[in-house]
Amino acid sequence: MKWDDLKSEPCPVARGLSVIGDRWTMLVLRDCFLGVRRFEQMQERLGITRHVLADRLRKLESDGVLRREAYQERPLRHEYRLTDKGKALYPVLVTLTAWAEEHVPPEKKSSMTLLSRDTGEVLEPILTDAKTGQRITHRNAVARRNID
Amino acid sequence: MKWDDLKSEPCPVARGLSVIGDRWTMLVLRDCFLGVRRFEQMQERLGITRHVLADRLRKLESDGVLRREAYQERPLRHEYRLTDKGKALYPVLVTLTAWAEEHVPPEKKSSMTLLSRDTGEVLEPILTDAKTGQRITHRNAVARRNID
DNA sequence: ATTAGTCAGTTCCAAAAAAGAACTTTCTAT
DNA sequence: ATAGAAAGTTCTTTTTTGGAACTGACTAAT
């Protein structure tokens, strides 16, 4: 199976992975959420090869997750910014972060905490149902495939 | 940079990706959550090559996400099951699913819905703070690196 | 007016990983 | 004896990476 074949799968997990299911893509997006916008900065921070970075940025742009915007002319230079579609990936980053903080301890003690921008309090992200507020776990939820 | 180097990164996103940041790994885990436990079944459902599947299962086992359990002897046969660490990945799958359902439409209309196991109602998964119940978005949350 | 530096890539080659298909081993069932 | 299943392994070919150098269009410093 190839990358683009995943796009037409009925399973949303597969479709999602067709966009972000790559070793580097999520790290690029993490940097975008941290405010990194330029090629050079990303390349240096990530230690990714320039070739692969250029490729991933192209792919993310064509998938509508990032948009390329000129921030100067002469010489023409572009930066990459998250689109709304890209920003909507935030919960995926957060849940992944929360999982890794709990289950994949770093060698050196060091960690990340999510804080409320308003109150500065530490946030503990959990998944709930928008309507009832009930917590969602693999125990009390089940996926159904809709046949149209 | 290599796979295992990611494990020692301070950033939890990188550490998380060292375990699940692979084209196939999340699809394998999706199947695990759907109850698929055997090599042959996975191989057929995913269309993954046997070689890569064997490799990914080995890796997931050594990372403590799956465990290999004998379900018969003569001939000895094993199946793969999610550990608690693996089950804790559920929110990542769910947020990815929700994102893809909204932003990566399938070519043929077809989709998945998450239902409550208790009430059968459709669930709309959102990210909230366990303490306050406030919704978490990239707008009202900020990551802080803890220096120990 | 050279020289150095920045940025966003591209080009080239070697090394690693994945695809695809056949083969193996240890059984059970016909 | 023959066929089939399960869980891999082995082999070869194709793709993807990694690593490093190079390009083009400027700008700033000497």
Any idea what the CATH superfamily of the domain at 3-83 in chain A is called?
Answer: Winged helix-like DNA-binding domain superfamily/Winged helix DNA-binding domain
Interface with most residues: A-B, 86 and 86 residues
Could you say what the CATH architecture of the domain at 3-83 in chain A is?
Orthogonal Bundle
Q: Number of helical runs of chain A?
A: 6
Overall pLDDT level of chain A = 94
Q: What is the CATH class of the domain at 3-83 in chain A?
A: Mainly Alpha
Gyration radius of chain A, in Å: 18 Å
pLDDT below 50 for ≥5 consecutive residues: which ranges of chain A?
none
DSSP strand count of chain A = 5
Secondary-structure class of chain A? alpha+beta
Give the termini distance of chain A in whole angstroms: 25 Å
How much of the residues of chain A is beta strand, in percent?
A: 15-25%
What is the overall shape of chain A? globular
For the largest beta-sheet of chain A, the strand count, sense and barrel status come to: 2 strands, antiparallel
Description:
- Two copies of one chain form a homodimer.
- By secondary structure, chain A is α+β, with helices and mostly antiparallel strands.
- Chain A has a domain at 3-83: Winged helix-like DNA-binding domain superfamily/Winged helix DNA-binding domain (Arc Repressor Mutant, subunit A).
- Chain A is built from six helices and five strands.
- In chain A, strands 1-2 form a two-stranded antiparallel sheet.
- Chains A and B meet through helix 1, helix 2, helix 6, strand 3 and strand 4 of A and helix 1, helix 2, helix 6, strand 3 and strand 4 of B.
- Strand 4 (125-129) of chain A pairs antiparallel with strand 4 (125-129) of chain B.
- Chain A binds a DNA duplex (30 and 30 nucleotides) through residues 1-2, 23, 38-40, 43, 48-55, 74-78.
